[in-house]
Structures are given as structure tokens and as C-alpha cells.
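Module 6 notes. Inverse folding takes a fixed backbone as the condition and produces residue identities as the prediction. Think of it as a translation problem where the source language is geometry and the target language is the twenty amino acids. Below is one complete input and output pair. Work through it position by position during the lab.
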């Protein structure tokens, strides 16, 4: 048995349909999912950009390296110069990506 057995036909003009299709495309949802989200009061957001995943991966790597560097510094009282340089390089690279692609 279907969970959703109520059908509501809606008539749209060309402009309204075009707008709906644009919003559906931006959201990455199906037309039905998009409309259900709106009806239930949810906020429908645009799908993240293609480079979003890469940026998150780089930031995650940067945070992991910072954590490892802090762990080493806590263990022996200091961090190696090479580790600090690598951390700075990754920070600058991540910042460059953010500026260029966002």
C-alpha cells in the first residue's frame, strides 16, 4: 500500500513552471521531493558546488595535520620546522582555493 495516496494537480503558467524547474535543478531533488519539502516548511537549499567536496577534503587534511602537529609538540615540547612549513603550505593552498572558487 502506498504511503502517499493523495494527488493534487496544480496548474502553472510558463514562467511559474520555469521557476519551479530551476529551483528543482538547483536543489538536486526530484520535483515531488522539492514540493514536499516546501509544503512541510523545510528550507530547500541549493546543491553544493562540484569543488565543495575537494575543498572539504583539503580542509579536513589540514585539520588532521594540525592535530598531529599539536600532538607531537605536546609530546616532546616542540614541533619540527619541516612540519610547520608543510602546515603553512597547506594553509596557503587551502586559502587560495577558497578565494578562487568561492
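Target side of the pair, the amino acids:
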Amino acid at each position: 500500500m502506498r504511503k502517499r495516496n493523495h494527488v493534487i494537480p496544480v496548474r502553472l503558467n510558463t514562467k511559474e513552471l520555469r521557476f519551479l524547474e530551476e529551483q528543482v535543478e538547483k536543489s538536486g531533488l526530484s520535483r515531488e521531493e522539492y514540493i514536499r519539502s516546501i509544503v512541510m516548511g523545510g528550507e530547500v537549499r541549493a546543491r553544493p558546488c562540484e569543488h565543495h567536496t575537494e575543498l572539504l577534503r583539503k580542509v579536513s587534511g589540514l585539520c588532521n595535520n594540525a592535530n598531529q602537529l599539536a600532538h607531537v609538540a605536546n609530546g616532546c615540547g616542540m614541533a619540527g620546522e619541516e612540519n610547520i612549513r608543510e602546515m603553512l603550505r597547506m594553509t596557503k593552498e587551502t586559502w587560495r582555493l577558497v578565494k578562487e572558487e568561492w
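Reference fact for the lab report: The mean pLDDT is 80.
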